[in-house]
Amino acid sequence: MKTKTPQDIRILNLAEPVAAELGLEIVRVRVLSGKRARLQIMADRPDNAIDVEDCARLSRGISGALETEDPISGEFDLEVSSPGIDRPLTTLPHFARWEGNEAKIELDRLADGRKRFRGILAGVEGENVLLDADGEEDTTLIPFDWITDAKLVLTDALIEANLKARAEAPATTEGDE
């Protein structure tokens, strides 16, 4: 779910080594079309405390690879950002990390007669996401491979958890890499 197209995958393969050197994780890659294409790369730190300088370093780091490999025909704008508070969930560990928070999940097939679910993340079990879905008594087990889109829902509890995590994150100083 970090990518949707073969072009996105190619760009992810260029960006991930650069991000890893900077201690970052690529959360999602999307090439958005329009009059001028826009390459959107979302990244984060393991402690969810990415800042503007991290984004700038990643942008500078991958620009050369993008120019050399030329994965996008024509001109494009590069946008490197944090995933935000109501972040997309793109890997199985994300669902475990954000357990206890509300999420929206969309599937590529019907499960229990629907493709869209909303509820509280209840962790992971093997290759499955556990969700206490709205209106359901039992915890729903969703195969990770069936998920096409998932994101956290912006709630007061999520904002509070995010503020707490940022307060507990180790301080960085200019020049730290």
Automatic annotation (TrEMBL):
Any single GO CC term annotated in Swiss-Prot or TrEMBL for this entry: cytosol
Annotated ranges, domain Ribosome maturation factor RimP N-terminal: 14-86
Keywords assigned: Cytoplasm, Ribosome biogenesis
Protein name stated in the entry: Ribosome maturation factor RimP
Alphabetized InterPro entries for the sequence: Ribosome_maturation_RimP, RimP_C, RimP_C_sf, RimP_N, RimP_N_sf
GO biological process: ribosomal small subunit assembly; translation
Subcellular location: Cytoplasm
Similarity section: Belongs to the RimP family.
Role according to the record: Required for maturation of 30S ribosomal subunits.
HAMAP family registered for this protein in UniProt: RimP
NCBIfam families, sorted: PRK00092.2-5
Organism: Maricaulis salignorans
The keyword Cytoplasm appears for this protein: yes
Top-rank lineage group of the source organism: Bacteria
Domain Ribosome maturation factor RimP C-terminal: 89-155
Keyword Cytoplasm among UniProt keywords: yes
